[in-house]
Design a protein that fits this description.
The structure is a homodimer.
Chain A: H1 3-10, E1 15-17, H2 21-31, E2 37-42, H3 51-65, E3 69-74, H4 76-81, H5 96-110, E4 120-124, H6 126-129, H7 134-141, H8 146-149, H9 153-160, H10 172-183, E5 187-189, H11 195-209, E6 216-219, H12 246-254, H13 261-268, H14 273-285, H15 290-305, H16 308-323, E7 333-336, E8 344-345, H17 346-353, H18 359-367, E9 371-373, E10 376-377, E11 384-385, E12 392-395, E13 399-404
Chain lengths: 405, 405
């Protein structure tokens, strides 16, 4: 591979371990006259992909275009077991059918970035982990020490704070590492919080397979979410899903704080390098209103996941709705009052018209002054309201509802 | 069971957890009209039993005589795996055949204390552990936390001293504990150093089987070995094996320091309680020469593992050989010099005539003045000697050798 192309592939990667690992593995694959094998883990318990996931997927796509073999690993083994302590109620075991459905959902979204028809192999780690018996497990565990596991940041912190670590948790990084042995991967893509587990894979390729140097571990920068503070994630509700409607994608992007713009330009758009640099320079020297730049980013994102027409329409919708405050009746979502009691709290009314947000999120919105009834701001979540036809409720910047029969 | 008999069973037991566990389990078995189930682990990697093991076996025999079901558990599963880190060279994996032979050897020796024809069942933990897959192992490990495992004394010490603990080592107590689930044992007999692992069995019976209180754990006092300091063990070479010749048993017992006598009277003899008490009182008030009491202990031990005639003969042999220094030619073991070089070091010569001792043990014996050539003490392990027929070598108190053609 030409040096120039390698440099292009390396661009934007946050961490490469070992440092020269990309060049080495590319050279090795070329020497052995075979495609580079890239491992990419899919978590079937969290099948909703968002722009944060897309950061890695886009880099993966670049590798795919150089002819690399992408191995999408479905972590169905652990998904089928769940959390044996029963402490983590968000991770109940999934059935075979649920895993299948989730994996397909995951793929459908992934297909918006990766070309699934080209050099992509989908494998399940139950294929090898299910075959391991107790003796095999002991042999695997013999390859690492407790002190090594406790180097993982979250283990170290919990151990120091006397927060229980169940014994089986210490096994999970070893399983993920063993997947790399089974796949004989050259490179593993992982989030920053997966670095430790990926490096276990590197070590196990060395100790079990006798490789002089195990897989190279690559991680992309984390994308901060809509709140501008935390990593984009579903549980923080600060995300834009890859399959969200165009209007939502556009509106949500318009809501991000200005200081997020440089990293969003880098990580979420597909502008060429020069355009990105110009936009960031414009921002820096104040030549352009940040709102204009945000609009370009929003249109670019919608164009990637929908198309240019949808982007234009979403822009128009946004301006009608929010920026120009044109309270066009047609744009209020009609919500039936059927079944509601005669009197209801503001919070319960908001939850009735907008079931997508959690009650605690809605309460925060009310208390922060983001909710209005018939044009009047209301900040008492527990004020009593009589739901009547025609009552208009505004929630946040983009939620417009009107009660109907 | 009568209270009196229970008290007799409890006598001499060092630890019972929980305190009232013996009474409770005996009552439970009686209520359910079934024999008490007692788990006793056999380690097929260490098949040589000595008087230290017999302490527990004799208590087990008492339970057996009350009608309890003895379950002898062969730990063949781990024996067949060995130590996966490869660090512990003293624990290489055993073959199926070696395990069989060792288990039989173990039983042969055990049969000197336990009546193997009465309420004894022999089981192997591979029967259930081999059937466990990775998922089962994870579920099992989910039942304990790292902090709980680190309460085990040796883990805690190694962890504090930064001595590596391999991950698989944390699993061993869980396996041993799971054996108690598989056996549904009421009581587990374990050495003092096995207490932790046995208590894991108690906990797992509670968390997996839902028992209100898991198995009762019983441990007997440790017997100190010939050196009077350390626990009797093969690796310390301070033991008397249950199958040793009568003369060796007698001579070794006569070699123990006087201060060991009270515990040896308690733990190794089968005198009745009154006789034991009298002997210990005699020792205390100095009424009898300790050597005389030692002789009674030695004869009692030989009588248990051989018979009364053998005990008399061993006593006579001992007095001829050692106490009266009667260097009767017939009692020198004849060792051929065939194959020896013309000149040999004292140490090599000792190793030639007595291959049972390690070279380092022999060197210490020489340097401590316990070796004589033709009646003359020699303390230089590397002095050169020309091996000739008729040369007499004395090693320690009981090794008498004569070189022959």
């Amino acid at each position: 591979m030409e040096k120039e192309l390698i440099e292009k592939l390396k661009k934007g990667i946050e961490t490469i371990v070992p440092e020269n690992g990309l060049e080495e593995k590319i050279a090795l694959a070329e020497k052995e006259n075979r495609p580079l094998i890239i491992k990419f883990g899919m978590d079937p318990t969290a099948p909703d992909l968002h722009l944060g996931h897309a950061v890695g997927l886009k880099k993966l796509r670049e590798f795919q275009e150089t002819g690399a073999q992408i191995v999408l690993l479905v972590g169905d083994f652990t998904a089928a077991i769940g959390d044996p302590t029963g402490r983590n109620t968000t991770r109940p075991p999934l059935t075979e059918e649920e895993i299948k459905v989730n994996a397909q959902t995951y793929l459908d979204q992934m297909g918006k970035v990766i070309d699934l028809s080209k050099n992509v192999k989908i494998v399940r780690n139950s294929d090898w982990l299910n075959k391991m018996n107790f003796g095999d497990v002991l042999k695997l565990l013999g390859k690492a020490t407790l002190a090594q596991m406790l180097q993982r940041d979250d283990f170290a912190k919990r151990f120091a704070a006397n927060i229980p670590i169940s014994l089986h948790e210490l096994v999970y990084p070893m399983m993920q590492g063993y997947d790399s042995v089974a796949l004989n991967s050259d490179i593993e893509f992982g989030g920053r919080d997966q670095l430790f587990n990926c490096l276990v894979g590197k070590t196990l390729q060395e100790s079990i397979m006798g490789k002089p140097v195990g897989q190279t571990v690559v991680s992309m920068p984390l994308l901060r979410g809509l709140d501008g503070e935390m990593k984009m994630s579903k549980s923080k509700n600060n995300y834009i899903g890859l399959t969200e409607p165009a209007n939502d994608m556009f509106g949500k992007t318009m809501s991000i704080p200005d200081e997020l713009l440089p990293e969003w330009i880098e990580l979420t758009t597909n502008f060429d390098a020069e355009t990105k640099a110009n936009l960031i320079a414009d921002l820096k020297n104040g030549a352009v209103n940040p709102m204009e730049i945000k609009k370009k980013v929003a249109k670019n994102i919608v164009t990637q996941y929908h198309d240019a027409t949808a982007a234009d329409e979403a822009e128009a919708f946004f301006y009608r709705q929010v920026q120009q405050k044109g309270f066009d009746d047609k744009s209020f979502e009609q919500v039936s009052i059927a079944g509601l009691p005669n009197e209801i709290s503001l919070l319960d009314l908001c939850a009735h018209v907008n079931s997508k947000e959690s009650k605690s999120a809605l309460r925060r919105l009310i208390e922060s002054g983001a909710v209005a009834i018939d044009g009047e701001k209301q900040t008492d979540a527990y004020m009593k309201i009589t739901p009547t036809t025609g009552l208009k409720i505004k929630i946040g910047k983009r939620g417009f509802f009107e009660l109907a029969d």
